[in-house]
Amino acid sequence: MTDQSIRFFESSAAVRHLGERLIASCLPRGEWTHEAHVAACYWLAAERPDICLSHDLPDIIRRHNDSVGTPNTDSSGFHATITHCYAMGVAAFHRRCDPALALVERVNALLTEPEGARDWPLRFYSRERLFSVEARRAVILPDLAPLPG
Question: Could you give the CA distance from residue 78 to residue 136 in angstroms, rounded to a whole number?
C-alpha cells in the first residue's frame, strides 16, 4: 500500500476538462497523475461510448506521452498490462455505480475504492510479472488472481 494521499477532483467540469485535454494530447505532463489516469479512464467509460477502452485507450495514452516527451519504451511510458488492468477495474466500478450521481462524485468514489488504488494491479500480478518488459509491451495474464470481468 501507499502513504500518498488521494488528490480528489473539485468538479465534474474539471474531470471532463482533464479527459478532453488527454484526448487532444495537450494535458501537461505534471497533471498526468495517478488520479488523472483513473479519472480520465472513468470519464471515457461514462461519457464517451464512442471510445472503446480496450481498443482506443492504449493509443490515446501513447499519443499523449509522445506529446509531452515521455518515451514509450521498455522502461517508461505506456504500460499495456497496467492500462488494461485499470480499464477492467474502472469498467466494473462504472457498471455498479449509481448513474444519478454527479461525475465528480463517481470519480472521487472510485479513487477510494480498490479499483482506483495505486497498487490495485498488485492484487492480480506479482511485482516481478507486472513490471516485466513483457507486461509493459502487451497485456499478459495475471499470476495471482483473475481480473474482474
Answer: 7
Which pLDDT value is given to residue 62? 97
Q: How far is CA 77 from CA 20, 25, 113, 133, in A?
A: 20, 14, 25, 12
Distance of alpha carbon 100 from alpha carbon 105, whole angstroms: 10
Alpha helices in the chain (DSSP H): 12-23, 34-47, 53-67, 80-96, 103-112, 127-130, 133-137
The alpha carbon dihedral of 107, 42, 131, 121 has a sign of: positive
Distance between CA atoms of 123 and 60, rounded to whole angstroms?
26
Q: Which three cell numbers stand for residue 136?
A: 509493459
pLDDT at residue 1 above 80? Answer: no
Report the Cα 94 to chain-centroid distance in Å: 13
